[in-house]
């Protein structure tokens, strides 16, 4: 990761009291504007049922258009992701990466759901960028995407969310986003 991207990120206990785990730049340097992490999880359209999966689940990310991404790596959320990922497999090709559900993700960027919220003394250093994966994205690279659609729908592009550095970020710094950004 250090060789390819120029930095490493990892999960560690947050510097915020009582905030659990956070995400840190552990090595190297992240330049402003770089993609620093991805938000993994099952993608639900606004009309799809998520009630059970959302109970006591702080990992549900809401996109601007109401699409939801469940980035919880435990319990029913984990089972749903694995099930959808197995369903979507095309012959030898996996259409998504399930290793973010483990302690050591194959795609080391897929830990963005653990980024904590900013506060007065910890301003945001990353922001969320939502995008739809284009049709021409190579099928053999989809195995590294940590997102899967809840419903099988080959017409719809895959929604992904990445975290982008708002400024240069150095090794040792924790990542903070703003959970409540309002986009006008
Ligand atoms: C999406 S999770 C982030 C990962 C979480 N820290 C964990 O260990 O699972 C969101 C939860 O993290 C905690 N959290 C995030 N930002 C926080 C902050 N600024 N202060 C205290 N707790 C925070 C809250 O418990 C919140 O419900």
UniProtKB/TrEMBL annotation:
Protein's UniProt name: SET domain-containing protein 9
The organism of origin for this protein: Nibea albiflora (Yellow drum)
Organism lineage string: Eukaryota, Metazoa, Chordata, Craniata, Vertebrata
């Amino acid at each position: 990761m250090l060789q390819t991207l120029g930095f490493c990120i990892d999960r560690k206990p947050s510097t915020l009291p009582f905030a659990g785990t956070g995400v840190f730049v552990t090595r190297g340097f992240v330049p402003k504007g770089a993609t620093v992490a991805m938000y993994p999880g099952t993608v639900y359209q606004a009309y799809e049922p998520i009630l059970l999966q959302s109970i006591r689940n702080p990992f549900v990310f809401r996109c601007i258009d109401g699409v939801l991404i469940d980035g919880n790596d435990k319990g029913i959320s984990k089972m749903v992701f694995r099930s959808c990922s197995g369903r979507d497999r095309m012959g030898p090709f996996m259409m998504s990466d399930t290793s973010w559900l483990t302690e050591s993700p194959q795609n080391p960027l897929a830990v963005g759901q653990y980024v904590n919220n900013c506060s007065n003394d910890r301003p945001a250093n990353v922001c969320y960028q939502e995008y739809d994966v284009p049709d021409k994205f190579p099928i053999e690279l989809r195995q590294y995407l940590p997102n899967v659609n809840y419903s099988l729908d080959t017409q719809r592009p895959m929604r992904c969310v990445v975290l982008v550095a708002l400024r240069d970020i150095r090794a040792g710094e924790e990542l903070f986003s703003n959970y409540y950004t309002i986009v006008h």
